[in-house]
Amino acid sequence: MFRRIPVFSAALVGAAAIAASASAEIKVGFIGSLSSDTGLSTLRGAEIAIDELNAAGGVMGQQIALVTADTGEDVTEGIKAYEYLAETEEVDFIISGSIDDVSLGWLPRMQEYRIPTLDTWTSYIGIIDMVVEEPELMEPYFMNIASDEALATLYISFGADVLKGQMGWDSVVILAEDTAFGGAITGLVTDALAPVAGIEVKDIIVYDIGTVDFAPIFSKAQASGADFIYQVSSVNSQVMSSQYVKLQVPMPMTGVNVSALGLEYWEDTGGAGGGISTLSPIPSVGFELDPVSQQFVDTYQARYDSRPVMPHFNGFNAYHGLKQAMAAAEEAGGFDDVSAWAAAMEKQDLKLEKDGKLWLRYGFWQRDQVEPVTQRTYPHNALFDLEAPYDFAQPSMVVVQWQEDGSVGVVYPPEYANMDFAVPSWVPVK
């Protein structure tokens, strides 16, 4: 009736407990394209952060393991990838390098599984609107890039100060890709350029992302009579760029050109990228770095010898954001209590200085915090500053420009500029 437990059994139980403790791990899932500069930037930023955290002892005494799920920048594959991470890998946290359309695809799965998730590339303001309108459903979601509304808002200032004020351009034709990102940016720019910057929108030309011949589109743009072209392109934008240069289109072109955010842009366009300017979240190519960011780049370049040779902005977001997510988990006692983790994540705030001045800030807007320029809230969105002197946070974006000699630098805002805005040599100056 009474059975005595042998001493060796107790020892085995103790050993099993120690083994279980030693093998315990926190599992992070990466979701994004494994063959794009965008996806690889996020993945590599996460890998470096995880290696550094593990070398320092891990999180809550546990090591961090990373698993990946490839979206191929396809919405359907993105949904499958999220399901795989949730159901098969049973990850504790997901870090995303997804493009906007793909994130929109898997968002319902995030709401269902309630896995803490950080988007490092997607900037669609509609997702932040969902956080505002459905706080419980969207509680696990954070976006540590300024939303596209903030990007566009500061770009409107560039329009008023430089395009209209400095260059004297009064009208624009918008060439926008047919994506969620393209539609969002086009709407924001269209609504603000005329009333705020005093620039008339002559026409909006929407094109398919598979377009390979832009000559008819450029001809239509010229026929609009606009002073300049505003490009909105996040997919295959190097095609439009190189054809713009090779065709010597006699109109200046600026806007949003995602391919121009990487150092490979010059090679990708065959050296036909001169004169292109684009808004970019920061850090960007041509952007001066603070010591902490420079150290991350040095580590990155010592470790990886394939493209992208310098991480895009979302690589920095992944590096800092993953560390912040783990710090929040330490405070919340893990990821299981999503509300506790989200509350701790909201408080994460990293300030980086350059020459004694605030240069970059990785933090999040609180739910009741009103941004003074737009007079709205951006809960779970990255902190940004829309007005100089940028003593609250960094600007939501900068404008960078590639010159005809292959050099690249920041041309706006003045506080971060290290190069003057210029018109390509073949374009007549108004």
Query: The CATH topology of the largest domain is what?
Result: Rossmann fold
Mean pLDDT, to the nearest integer, reads 90
| Shape field | globular
- Strand segment tally: 16
Question: What's the SSE pattern?
Answer: HEHEHEHEHEHEHEHEHEHEHHHEEEEEE
* SS element count, helices: 13
What structural category do the secondary elements indicate?
Answer: alpha/beta
Strand content: 15-25%
Q: What do we call the CATH homologous superfamily of the largest domain?
A: Response regulator
Query: How many structural units, i.e. domains?
Result: 2
User: Based on the structure given, which CATH architecture of the largest domain is correct?
Assistant: 3-Layer(aba) Sandwich
Q: What gap, in angstroms, lies between the N and C termini?
A: 100 Å
Largest sheet: 5 strands, parallel
